[in-house]
Amino acid sequence: MTLSYPTLTETDLVAACQRGEARAQRQLYERLAGLMLTVCRRYLKRREDAEEALLVGFAKMFAALPGYRAEGSFEGWVRRIMVNEALMLLRRREPLTLSFDDFAQPENLATTPATADTQLQADDLLALLAALPVGYRTVFNLYALEGYGHQEIGAMLGISEGTSKSQLSKARAMLQKRLVV
Q1: CA distances (Å), 31 to each of 7, 24, 147, 171, in order?
Q2: Is 122 contained in some domain?
Q3: What is the domain range of residue 159?
Q4: Longest C-alpha distance within the chain, in Å?
Q5: pLDDT by residue (tens digit) across 25-47?
Q6: Which residues of 60-93 are buried (b: 16+ CB within 10 A; e: fewer)?
Q7: Residue 79 resides in a domain
Q8: Same domain for 73 and 127?
Q9: Count H helices, E strands: the chain?
Q10: Cα 37 to Cα 47: distance, rounded to the nearest angstrom
């Protein structure tokens, strides 16, 4: 009996990949590559670097797949691998420099309502994130987009929890300033 891979559930596709079925591996890559490339691009300015992180991340994911225990979301498990790979490449390509510039925190940062003209396309958001200093961008991505807490971010980046909070605050202020301009 031949399985039609496009109709497989994620669980069945993962099991086929764990058995080493090349067609299933290709299908899994095709299902996740676009989303995971977006994850990598949030950390790395150059598309080529993000693509490199993606490919290395998938290689690591396939190597680790036999040990995957299906605890939690599979996509979340893959996302963590991609984030870690993007951070490793970021450390090699762009030293993580934390910025301590003084940006005035807008009074209405948390209360500014979204309006039609502030709705951004994904590429516009990626460009805004890429323009942030590397420390701001990394902390912002880990906190706001990946859901890590400041203590976890501090451990991942080798910084204090307070520094993580400060970098996030300054990143938000800089993003809001750029949105208003």
Answers
A1: 12, 10, 23, 32
A2: yes
A3: 116-180
A4: 65
A5: 999 999 999 999 999 999 998 99
A6: bbeeebeeeeeeeebeebbbbbbbebbbebbeee
A7: yes
A8: no
A9: 8, 0
A10: 9
